């Protein structure tokens, strides 16, 4: 059978001079003309491809994750920064948003990590899996350095890849049937991990809250410490001091009230002390400085903001033996089971760095780094004070909490980004009580902080 007989008459046309014609494309009819020697022109008309339907499994999505609103706060800030850079590709953007450290890790610490790393290439220095709870020497050093005379022993300490990771592991320990409370505003990982675990109801857009979470208002009016007489009883209380984002640090008297509140209600406090070494006031650096806290509290901490370990990843969680569930079973035993099931222990190179951090030279070097960021904080605080803003934080934490009354936090974030090319963090991302505030991070190179403050003054003078 000939070619002509194989083609539909609807797809061919003839021309006596076809063999002389050039190849052509008709965009209106989607037709292509091919010059064929000794035969008529064949015009092939393409049919639109049928839209392909993506294959779907029969596995339903985790309904709890579907409750989450938009993206996690900091990736959303990063996304908007990326969009801004597309719009202004030559802009010198300064990031004072996410709390990521910028200064180099002190040499005394990196040298210890390098030595441990090189040791892995020798028979004598090689090590594989370590104890999931952390190396004994590091646990012992943490106990003596941060919890001396507080009754915390090395086997109460679990070394990890960071406090944020441990927050999620703790949520797995608690399960989906507990109730929880958070400071409002607070670090968003507490709420999001609670939502994912199924501890909450749906998001209520009218009040910007998830159902079944107790939001403990922390505002300038109450000194950023909740009125516990109005707080509903929950199983778990997440509490951060010095606080991220407000920078407020709880006093000894306030933490004593919090511990007693937990005891009266049979609750467990998860105390985030990630910024304890930034404390300038004579406030507790550990919840375990409060009598009775070992019976009601867990403490998480990290080297991230002390030694620049945001990328190295090393932290720890303290779960005292005295902390018991309602049936008398030790919480530490369940946490140990989760750690052994979900985690293979912190990187041995990171742990070598952590041990170096706790040497006399390492502690001195960390204090120098912390002092540098605190000086940045002072510069930012003075800038906004000079512009007439009400400013909070900055004394006990590397964050400055700036009030923009009656304004949307995201609008202020967008205004600052658009007009100054500076990235901040909108306060509403930390909870409904953060609306009308922005958080400015002091983590940055000094020249960038000074330039950012110059731009702030130019915008708000």
From TrEMBL:
Belongs to the class-I pyridoxal-phosphate-dependent aminotransferase family. LL-diaminopimelate aminotransferase subfamily. It comes from Hibiscus syriacus (Rose of Sharon). This is LL-diaminopimelate aminotransferase. Keywords: Aminotransferase, Pyridoxal phosphate, Transferase. Its cofactor is pyridoxal 5'-phosphate. Coiled coil: none annotated. The keyword Transferase applies. InterPro entries: Aminotransferase_I/II_large, DapL/ALD1, PyrdxlP-dep_Trfase, PyrdxlP-dep_Trfase_major, PyrdxlP-dep_Trfase_small. One of its GO terms (biological process) is systemic acquired resistance, salicylic acid mediated signaling pathway. Residues 92-456 form the Aminotransferase class I/classII large domain. One of its GO terms (molecular function) is transaminase activity. Signal peptide: none annotated. It comes from the Eukaryota.
């Amino acid at each position: 059978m000939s070619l002509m007989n194989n083609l539909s008459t609807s797809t061919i046309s003839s021309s006596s001079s076809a063999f002389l014609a050039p190849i052509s494309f008709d965009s209106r009819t989607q037709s292509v003309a091919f010059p064929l020697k000794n035969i008529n022109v064949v015009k092939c008309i393409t049919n639109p491809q049928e839209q392909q339907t993506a294959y779907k499994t029969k596995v339903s999505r985790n309904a709890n994750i579907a409750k989450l609103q938009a993206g996690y706060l900091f990736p959303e800030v990063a996304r908007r920064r990326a969009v801004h850079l597309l719009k202004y590709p030559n802009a010198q953007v300064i990031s004072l948003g996410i709390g990521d450290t910028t200064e180099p890790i002190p040499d005394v610490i990196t040298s210890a990590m390098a030595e441990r790393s090189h040791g892995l290439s020798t028979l004598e220095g090689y090590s594989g899996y370590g104890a999931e709870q952390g190396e004994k020497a590091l646990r012992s050093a943490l106990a003596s350095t941060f919890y001396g005379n507080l009754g915390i022993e090395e086997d109460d300490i679990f070394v990890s890849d960071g406090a944020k990771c441990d927050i999620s592991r703790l949520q797995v320990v608690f399960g989906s049937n507990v109730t929880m409370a958070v400071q409002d505003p607070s670090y968003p990982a507490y709420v999001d991990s609670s939502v994912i675990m199924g501890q909450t109801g749906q998001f209520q857009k009218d009040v910007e809250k998830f159902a079944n979470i107790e939001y403990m208002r922390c505002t300038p009016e109450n000194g950023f410490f909740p009125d516990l007489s109005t707080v509903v009883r929950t199983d778990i209380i997440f509490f951060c001091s010095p606080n991220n984002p407000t920078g407020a640090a709880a006093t000894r008297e306030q933490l004593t009230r919090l511990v007693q509140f937990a005891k009266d209600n049979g609750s467990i406090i998860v105390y985030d002390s990630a910024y304890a070494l930034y404390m300038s006031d004579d406030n507790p650096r550990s919840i375990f400085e409060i009598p009775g806290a070992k019976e009601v509290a867990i403490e998480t901490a990290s080297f991230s903001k002390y030694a620049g370990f945001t990328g190295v990843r090393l932290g720890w969680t303290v779960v005292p033996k005295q902390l018991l569930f309602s049936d008398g079973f030790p919480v530490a035993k369940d946490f140990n089971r989760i750690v052994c099931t979900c985690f293979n222990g912190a990187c041995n190179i990171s742990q070598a760095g952590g041990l170096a951090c706790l040497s006399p030279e390492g502690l001195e070097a960390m204090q120098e780094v912390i002092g540098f960021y605190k000086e940045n904080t002072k510069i930012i605080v003075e800038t906004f004070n000079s512009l007439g803003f009400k400013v909070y934080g900055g004394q006990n934490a590397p964050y400055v909490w700036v009030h923009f009354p009656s304004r949307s936090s995201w609008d202020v974030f967008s205004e600052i980004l658009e007009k100054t090319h500076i990235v901040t963090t909108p306060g509403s991302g930390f909870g409904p009580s953060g609306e009308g505030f922005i958080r400015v991070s002091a983590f940055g190179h000094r020249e960038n902080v000074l330039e950012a403050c110059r731009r702030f003054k130019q915008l708000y003078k």
